[in-house]
Design goal:
By secondary structure, the chain is an alpha+beta fold. It is about 50% helix and about 20% strand. It contains 6 helices and 8 strands, in the order E-E-E-E-E-E-H-E-E-H-H-H-H-H. A 4-stranded antiparallel beta sheet has the order 1-5-4-2, with no helix packed on it. Strand 7 and strand 8 form a beta hairpin. The longest helix has about 60 residues. The radius of gyration is 43 Å and the shape is rod-shaped.
Length: about 350
C-alpha cells in the first residue's frame, strides 16, 4: 500500500543543503494518517517499512506491504460458473473529511493493470478487474472519506465440469439408453445401479458446496432434478415389469391344459358306462374321436384367447414405454436447455 500526503510544516531549499531534494526518515519522527481496512478479519501481517520518504517541498510518501485476510460474501447460485466480488475499504479512524481528504492514487484501469502484473498464480480463480471509488460515511454528525476497492474474480469451471457435471450427464444418457433394454429383471438392476451412482455424486456435491448460501445453487437443482427423472424412470420400469408378470400369471390360470380335457373325458365316459348299456368297439372309438375333436377345438380356442390377451398386454406395455420415453426425453431436453442457459446468463 502506497500513501502520500503534503506536510505544510516541511520545506527547504535544496541549494542551501548541498542540493539534497529528499531524505528518508523513521516513521516515528513525523505525523502519519491513521488508515485502516474495514474488512480485515485477522491481524494485518506483512513486512512493514519503518521509514518514510520526504521531499523538499513537503511531500511525504509511505509504502508498506500488507497481507490482509478478509471475508467476502459469496454467491454460489451459478457455481461453478460464478463470479465473485470482494471489497476492501480504507478510511481514517479519527479524522473526518474536514481534516483528511482521501483521494485515490490511481483510477480503476491503472489499478487493474497493476494487479494483473502483480498476480503470479491464478489457481481456481481468474482475476477480472478492480474498481476504485471514493465514498463518504456519516457517523455522529461527522463525515469520513473512504476509498473502496471492489475486486472481481471468476471461477475457472473446467475441472468442476469434467469431474462432476459431465459424469451426471453421462448417467442420464445411460438411463435414456436403458429404454432399449428388454423389460426384464436385468433392466431393473441396471437402473438401480445408475441411480446409486447419482447418489454418490450427491454426497460429493455436499462436500464441495459452501454450507450457507442465500439462493439454492443451480448445480444442486441440476443434480436433484436429474435424480428425480431417473427415479421416475425406475418406477415406470417396475410398473411395466409388474404388468408383464401379472399377465403371465393370468394366462397360466386361465388356459386349460390337455390333461384337464382328458380328465373331463374320462369322467363323462365313466358316467356313460354307468348309465348306458355296454358299447361295442365301433361306438367307443367314435366317442373317443368326438372327444379328441372337442379337446382340439377347445385347445385352439384357449390358445387364441391367450395369445390375443398376451398381444393386447404387450401392446399396452409398449405404448406405455413409448409415451413415457417421448415425454421423458422432451422433459430432460427442456430442463438441460433451461439450466445451462441459466448458468450462462450474466
Amino acid at each position: 500500500m502506497s500513501v502520500s500526503w503534503n506536510n505544510e510544516r516541511i520545506s527547504w531549499n535544496p541549494k542551501d543543503f548541498c542540493g539534497i531534494k529528499s531524505v528518508i526518515l523513521p516513521k516515528e519522527m513525523l505525523w502519519k494518517p491513521d488508515l485502516y481496512v474495514h474488512e480485515t478479519a485477522e491481524k494485518e501481517d506483512g513486512p512493514l517499512n519503518p521509514y518514510i520518504y520526504v521531499t523538499h517541498d513537503g511531500n511525504v510518501k509511505m509504502e508498506d506491504d500488507h497481507k490482509i485476510v478478509s471475508t467476502c460474501t459469496m454467491n454460489v447460485h451459478k457455481f461453478p460458473f460464478d463470479t465473485q466480488t470482494c471489497h476492501i475499504t480504507v478510511s481514517s479512524i479519527n479524522y473526518s473529511d474536514k481534516e483528511i481528504k482521501l483521494v485515490p492514487a490511481s483510477n480503476s484501469s491503472k489499478a487493474t493493470q497493476l494487479a494483473r502484473e502483480s498476480i503470479l498464480t491464478k489457481g481456481e480463480w481468474e482475476f477480472l478487474n478492480i474498481s476504485v471509488s471514493l465514498q463518504n460515511e456519516s457517523y455522529e454528525d461527522q463525515t469520513f472519506d473512504r476509498i473502496k476497492y471492489t475486486i472481481s474474480v471468476r471461477r475457472l469451471p473446467l475441472m468442476h465440469f469434467i469431474n462432476f457435471q459431465l459424469p451426471v450427464l453421462f448417467f442420464l444418457v445411460l438411463d435414456l439408453a436403458s429404454f432399449f433394454i428388454p423389460d426384464r429383471g436385468d433392466k431393473l438392476c441396471f437402473k438401480v445401479t445408475v441411480l446409486l451412482g447419482i447418489s454418490v455424486l450427491l454426497l460429493i456435491l455436499n462436500d464441495i458446496l459452501p454450507s450457507k448460501s442465500h439462493r439454492c445453487p443451480l448445480i444442486a437443482v441440476y443434480v436433484v432434478v436429474i435424480f428425480s427423472f431417473m427415479l421416475l424412470s425406475l418406477l415406470e420400469t417396475i410398473l411395466v415389469i409388474y404388468l408383464i408378470n401379472m399377465n403371465s400369471e393370468q394366462d397360466a390360470k386361465g388356459v386349460q391344459t390337455p390333461e384337464d380335457h382328458i380328465s373331463d373325458t374320462d369322467n363323462r365316459k365313466r358316467h356313460v358306462n354307468g348309465v348306458e348299456p355296454q358299447m361295442n368297439d365301433t361306438q367307443l372309438l367314435q366317442l373317443i374321436l368326438e372327444e379328441l375333436q372337442n379337446i382340439r377345438q377347445s385347445l385352439v380356442t384357449d390358445t387364441l384367447k391367450a395369445k390375443t390377451a398376451q398381444i393386447y398386454w404387450f401392446g399396452t406395455v409398449k405404448r406405455i414405454n413409448r409415451v413415457f420415453f417421448v415425454v421423458y426425453l422432451i422433459s430432460v431436453s427442456l430442463f438441460l436447455v433451461f439450466i445451462f442457459r441459466e448458468w450462462k446468463v450474466e
